[in-house]
Fold this sequence. Notes:
Layout: H1 3-11, H2 17-29, E1 37-39, H3 41-48, H4 52-64, E2 68-70, E3 86-90, H5 100-109, H6 150-159, E4 173-177, E5 192-196, H7 197-208
Antiparallel strand pairs: 1-3, 2-3, 4-5
Bound molecules: zinc ion.
Zinc ion binds at residues 164, 166-167, 169, 195-196, 198-199.
Amino acid sequence: MSFPILWALKAAPVADANERLILIALAEAARSDGTGAVLSRKQVAAVALVDVKTVQRRLGQLRQRGLIAEGDQREVIHLPEQSRPKAYDLLIPYSAFPDIGQVNAEREARGEEPLTPDMRPDLPDAPAKRRRRDLGTVLGPQRQRTGISEALRQFVYERDGYRCVRCGAPDDLTLDHIHPWVLGGVNSEENLRTLCRPCNSSKNATIEGPEVTA
Length: 214
Ligand SMILES: [Zn+2]
């Protein structure tokens, strides 16, 4: 495995899985120093399993935080303009390379100046996750069963003080539909409450029938 891939996989300060996959897609196409990753957004999207718009937005964010930069576009000048991909550089920090001597020898062989700590400074930590504003929407296939977004889940837990509203237990928390999901109860903050798993199961067993916990 090339070092840029390893860096993207293990060390790069990415904000989430999408960024990681996009970075891995670029790393796979990059040289040992992280430069010259020639890929179209479509190709990146195919690796990261996201749509092209997401790729575009995430590339912008990665650029803003200094993880990537636009590379030397002479690398792609020979390709047809209409479908021309972009060249990106992964700005792997100097301090991250396990064998900077080898990397710089390869750069020298290409007629490029050696990397220095100034050219490749350390990167800031990944930003903390922002709370999503789209409370209640489905985020991914694993949520299809209940359709409760991570944001809504966190909202209800926070509102209930991260405690079971029946017994006050702080652990093993689940979301409970007050009007049961199987009976058409909706995923709204009004219809959701925090129950610990024991309370949720005893409720299910005795009164309202099977319940979705997730
Ligand atoms: Zn409880």
